[in-house]
Write a structure and sequence with these properties.
Number of strands: 10
Helix content: 40-55%
Largest sheet: 6 strands, mixed
Structural class: alpha/beta
Shape: elongated
Number of helices: 12
Radius of gyration: 23 Å
Strand content: 15-25%
Strand order of the largest sheet: 5-4-3-6-7-10
Length: 309
């Protein structure tokens, strides 16, 4: 998947200025008041000093060289630090796709494209972006930086993820979230893309790892990545099917209709419990249904979070 090409299909970027002016105009003035945005100043240019102006920003070194008074002009920049975490286990490569494209994404493809879109927005605000990728190993780590070279490196790495099929790669979310938490020392926004499907440990232990991410007062957002049609609704034909656990290799033969009602009930309860625990730990929960237009997911997130204005 060519991420740069696919991003052109995301209307969010074509209409970013319109979105900013119409939907989040008020967010800009409040952005620097957010506890996750600080204010820093970056020198932009010199301007001739006009009598009566504050002398606070006069460049006295330049005055010594030129015998003329100039003031330093600054431009505001946000300094949000954001670390995005991707679950790259085998279950995230469901459903199997020969070629991920904007209109035909599996969970990892959706997560990669959404990550690239968020990175693009963060880049526009001159924010520092970091990335971690894990499955049954800690596959990739890049600390938060804001340079163009760093951004392009991350985009290049993300592009490769959609081409690699993960065979029997289990999900060790519990293990690696703890490790990632230890790496992020400065207060940051942490965004996690995962399907919350794992066999390593119980959900309570998993949320203890998520809680660890909150330890240093980070803002944590969970994008629960799911194929609602099959994983939530269990919509399969009623022909006999063999279902294979892509992470453990275990198989089960059954008629979908025979278990559909029970499955839906248990999955609904499972998702409800995830949302409840996210609320208890003050973790922002966002449903990332790969069958939903990516624009709708990002727009919803923008309007709820008020941070990417």
């Amino acid at each position: 998947m060519d991420i740069q090409k696919e991003l052109q299909n995301v209307q969010l970027f074509k209409n970013l200025d319109l979105l900013t002016n119409q939907a989040v105009e008020g967010f800009i003035s409040g952005m620097h008041k957010s506890p996750f945005h600080g204010f820093s100043s970056e020198f932009a240019e010199h301007a001739i000093y006009n009598q009566g102006e504050s002398t606070k920003h006069i460049d006295w070194k330049l005055y010594a060289r030129t015998d003329k008074l100039y003031t330093k002009k600054y431009e505001e920049e946000t300094n949000l630090r954001c670390h995005i975490i991707l679950d790259n286990s085998s279950s995230m490569h469901y459903p199997v796709q020969k070629n991920n494209s904007f209109n035909n994404l599996n969970k990892i493809g959706f997560s990669v494209l959404a990550t690239a879109a968020l990175m693009n927005l963060l880049k526009r605000q001159r924010d520092a972006i970091g990335l971690s990728v894990y499955s049954d190993s800690y596959e990739f780590y890049a600390p938060e930086k804001g340079s163009e070279r760093h951004h392009q490196m991350l985009v290049h790495y993300l592009s490769k993820l959609t081409f690699k099929t993960q065979q029997n790669k289990t999900t060790k979310t519990y293990t690696y979230l703890h490790q990632i938490a230890e790496k992020i020392h400065r207060r940051s926004m942490i965004i996690l893309f995962t399907d919350m499907l794992q066999t390593e440990t119980e959900n309570q232990a998993l949320f203890e790892a998520l809680k660890h991410l909150k330890y240093n007062k980070h803002e944590v957002i969970l994008f629960h990545t799911i194929d609602s049609t099959t994983e939530e609704e269990f919509n399969f034909s009623n022909a006999p099917k063999r279902f294979t656990d892509v992470e453990t290799g275990e198989v089960i033969d059954l008629y979908a209709e025979n278990v559909k009602d029970v499955y839906q009930k248990q999955m609904k309860e499972y998702i409800k419990n995830i949302k409840i625990q996210c609320g208890q730990y003050r973790i922002k929960y966002v449903t990332a249904d790969i069958k939903t237009d990516l624009n709708k997911v990002l727009h919803t997130y923008l309007l709820e979070r008020h941070i990417f204005a």
